[in-house]
Design brief:
Layout: H1 2-20, H2 37-46, H3 54-65, H4 67-76, H5 80-83, H6 85-92, H7 103-114, H8 118-121, E1 124-131, E2 135-143, E3 149-157, H9 161-182, H10 184-189, H11 191-205, H12 208-221, E4 228-229, E5 242-246, E6 251-252, H13 256-261, H14 266-284, E7 286-288, E8 296-298, E9 304-306, E10 312-314, H15 317-332, H16 335-344, H17 354-369, H18 378-391, H19 398-417, H20 423-438, H21 441-480, H22 488-521
Parallel strand pairs: 4-9
Antiparallel strand pairs: 1-2, 2-3, 3-5, 6-8, 7-10, 8-9
Helix pairs in contact: 1-2, 1-3, 3-4, 3-6, 9-11, 14-19, 14-20, 15-16, 15-20, 16-17, 17-18, 18-19, 20-21
Pathway: Cofactor biosynthesis; ubiquinone biosynthesis [regulation]
Organism: Azorhizobium caulinodans (strain ATCC 43989 / DSM 5975 / JCM 20966 / LMG 6465 / NBRC 14845 / NCIMB 13405 / ORS 571)
InterPro entries: ABC1_dom, Kinase-like_dom_sf, Prot_kinase_dom, UbiB, UbiB_kinase
């Protein structure tokens, strides 16, 4: 009962903030049940007169509600199947900016994390340069054993954030469970799974050691890519609440004027951004899932520098093959093959018709080919594709939705640098290279080698499996040799169960008989 009251209070507060910031005023009365329409009229009365655009209203409301809601909004931007494509686009621009929590608190966090005085960890420790819902970043200086001074970026976890997130996510989970009980659409969208995914994502984000590991893995994957750089992690000065990385002196990709003034080739930068993301997703199966312009810099060497690895995405071989063949199928207008990929990946249930699904995909693909190349959006393509698959009982695939969301952002960044960028020409080398490596003769040989390895492992395990099977057969033979014997307790339990069933069966017959008698008397 206490939890119900707490959830009700939190919902009431959230409802008031959404109403006050004008978010609920955007909802059409026709889309809500009749009983809720008076509440919608009340929400319009208390809305701010200067609420602004829908994106501005959403951003203001979620920022007022706090870090948990900001993260929820950012996460829902990856789920157009839940909130709708237009709302998802508005949420994509949600800025994760919160007030700094103070220099004194940050310094104490460092002292507690390393159990040493601040001066022994950092020679200089400056004020915060950025603050978000999870953490804030400081500029600092470290002195190496040889006396070398090095500038670093120090990310510090916001105090008390784990407790607050835990409480809010628990509320989100209970609300989602209630929605699934009363709504078939909520069950199809698997809202509890959505909340669980959000909870796991935020939990991992709040352990900065995991972000450090993500930096290291991404850096290892792109070490041979000459046009991409990932800041190095200072492991000696990183802990659960503190992450220290190489400081980047670069120009943000959002600063177009600064990039032009520095003489950078914007068209080449657009190509690097797009191809780098596709290589991460398709070649490595591990991609930066928050590639907005604030997390992308260009250094003096003209390299793309990626920071903030708190949110990463993973794709298995099946998902990478799906992405490659989908893009290639649309490029070549092979609708049948594109449809077959969905069935082979297990995304569309087998009871549906491949031909019908191919027809639905053609309805998406043909209009694309009537446009010029610079008007075709791969992100929009994936969005439409996921909408169509909903008609064919394709269950929610969180990893593909995260991929789609990131592609939307990356495509926007690339086209911001070069509005005439031909996405297909830019993507083709990466896609074709992956297909040649994995679906061509070389890839087939590698798959065959993997299959032989699996067979070998099975052969090695076969004696153990046979021994276990023989033991089970012997035990079964011994148990049944003289018939099955049940213990007195088991027999007594069976008798009691039969007695209860007989009692209720007889009671039901008496009720029916009395009802029939009453009807006959009437």
């Amino acid at each position: 009962m206490i939890l119900v009251l707490i959830d009700a209070a939190r919902l009431a507060r959230a409802g008031y903030v959404l109403a006050r910031e004008g978010v609920l005023s955007l909802v059409s009365p026709a889309m809500v049940p009749p009983l809720a329409r008076p509440g919608l009229r009340l929400a319009r009365l208390i809305a701010r007169p200067d609420a602004g655009t829908r994106a501005a209203r959403l951003s203001a409301a979620l920022s007022r509600l706090g870090p948990s809601y900001v993260k929820l909004g950012q996460f829902l931007a990856t789920r157009p199947d839940v909130v709708g494509a237009s709302v998802a686009r508005d949420l994509e621009v949600l800025q994760d900016r919160m007030p700094a929590f103070g220099q004194t608190v940050a310094e104490q966090t460092v002292v507690d994390a390393f159990e040493r005085p601040l001066s022994e960890v950092y020679a200089e420790f400056g004020p915060p340069v950025a603050a978000a819902s999870i953490a804030e970043v400081h500029k600092a200086v470290v002195v190496e054993r040889d006396g070398t001074r090095r500038t670093v970026a120090v990310k510090i976890l916001r105090p008390g954030i784990e407790r607050r997130f835990s409480a809010d996510v628990a509320t989100f989970r209970r609300i989602a469970a209630f929605a699934e009980k009363i709504s078939a659409e909520a069950r199809r969208l698997r809202l509890t799974t959505v909340v669980d995914t959000l909870g796991r994502s935020v939990t991992m984000e709040m352990d900065l050691r995991l972000e450090a590991a993500a930096y290291a893995e991404l850096a290892e994957n792109v070490k041979d890519d000459p046009d991409v750089h990932v800041p190095a992690v200072d492991w000696d000065r990183s802990a659960r609440e503190v992450l220290t990385t190489e400081w980047i002196d670069g120009i943000k990709l959002s600063d177009r004027a600064g990039l032009e003034a520095a003489g950078h080739d914007l068209q080449n930068l657009a190509r690097i951004v797009m191809q780098s993301f596709l290589r991460q997703a398709m070649r490595d199966g591990f991609f930066h899932a928050d590639m907005h312009p604030g997390n992308l810099f260009v250094d003096a060497e003209g390299r793309l520098v990626v920071v903030d690895c708190g949110i990463m995405g993973r794709l298995g071989l099946k998902e990478r093959r799906f992405l490659a063949e989908i893009l290639y199928g649309f490029i070549t207008r092979n609708w049948r093959r594109t449809a077959e990929v969905h069935f082979e990946a297990g995304y569309v249930p087998s009871h549906h018709s491949v031909e019908d699904f191919a027809l639905a995909i053609r309805a998406i693909g043909e209009p694309i080919h009537s446009r010029s190349a610079d008007q075709i959006s791969m992100a929009r393509l994936l969005s439409l594709l996921l909408e169509v698959t909903g008609l064919f009982d394709m269950k929610t695939r969180p990893e593909l939705l995260l991929l789609q969301k990131t592609m939307v952002v990356v495509e926007g960044v690339a086209r911001g640098l070069d509005p005439q960028l031909n996405m297909w020409t830019t993507a083709a080398p990466v896609v074709e290279d992956w297909i040649a490596q994995n679906l061509g003769p070389v890839g087939r040989l590698q798959q065959a080698g993997s299959g032989i390895g699996e067979v070998g492992r099975f052969v090695l395990d076969a004696p153990v499996l046979l021994t276990r099977a023989g033991r089970v057969v012997s035990q079964l033979d011994e148990a049944t040799r003289n018939g099955l014997h049940l213990s007195p307790e088991t027999l007594e339990g069976i008798g009691a169960a039969e007695a209860r069933r007989a009692f209720w069966g007889n009671a039901a017959l008496w009720v029916i008989a009395i009802a029939l008698l009453l009807l006959a008397l009437k």
